[in-house]
Amino acid sequence: MIPKLHYISEGNSPKEHIENIQKACSSGAELVQLHLKNISEKKHLKVAKEAREITSYFQTRLIISEDFKIARAVKADGVHLETMASSMKARIHLYTWQIIGGTANTIQDCVTLLGEQVDYITLNPFRSSAIEDNLPPVLGLNGYTAILETLETETPIIGTGGITTADVEDILKTGVSGIGVSEEITRNFDTIKTFNQLLSASSTEEQRHTFE
């Protein structure tokens, strides 16, 4: 069961990431992804433990970006692999109940990830970002529609990359299961409620994913 709204943490420091995760949880986020870059494994583990304490208190799902060893160590709900690293390798090291997500930009990316039996896929980016350089080609509504129509999969597909509340209605028409948001939520955590309303999401209404 994958929540429809994912908050991807943002901040100028690990401390800010933690503060923003706290705000997201207290504002009703069902799932947060700790998204730290360029950080030592020791510091990453420390921050992940803090994030796990906060999310456990609020009964919020926690996903760790990239590092499956840390995801296992803090008993996070899963790991998100942004590069096309083998999820099979990650699966060996994780608990059986932990989920794996992967980032895709093309149909072939999605096919590869589905072949590795990921639990969900994020399609990135929906639009260009002011905070991230070297992003792959922007997909937009046309890209999302083309990929979703070709895939015809029951695996949840999550749209990410510069998405705002104004985009949600049109994005859902492409067939995606949910969205991942960073910038708009970090600017105003009250938008979590708005996103949830637009997604018709709640703690009891989630995208259900069953393995065959």
How would you describe what is shown here?
The chain is of the alpha/beta class and 212 residues long. The chain has a single domain, classed as Alpha-Beta Barrel (TIM Barrel). The chain has 9 helices and 8 strands. It has helices spanning 14-26, 41-58, 68-73, 87-93, 107-115, 140-151, 168-173, 183-187, 191-198; strands at residues 5-8, 31-34, 61-65, 78-81, 99-104, 120-123, 157-160, 178-181. Strands 1-2-3-4-5-6-7-8 form an 8-stranded parallel β-barrel, surrounded by 5 helices.
Number of helical stretches of at least 4 residues = 9
Tell me the distance between the termini. 14 Å
Task: Please report the total strand number as a whole number.
Answer: 8
CATH superfamily: Aldolase class I
CATH topology category name? TIM Barrel
Shape: globular
Describe the sheet with the most strands. 8 strands, parallel, barrel
Output the strand order for the largest sheet.
Answer: 1-2-3-4-5-6-7-8
Q: What is the H/E order?
A: EHEHEHEHEHEHEHEHH
Which class best fits the helix and strand makeup?
alpha/beta
* Uncertain ranges: 201-212
- Identify the quaternary structure here: single chain
Mean pLDDT: 91
> What CATH architecture label applies?
Alpha-Beta Barrel
Alpha-carbon Rg, integer: 16 Å
Question: Level of helix content?
Answer: 25-40%
Overall number of structural domains: 1
Strand coverage percent: 15-25%
Reading off the top of the CATH hierarchy, the class is best stated as: Alpha Beta
Task: Note the main attributes of this structure.
globular, eight-stranded parallel beta barrel, alpha/beta, 40% helix, TIM Barrel, 9 helices, 212 residues
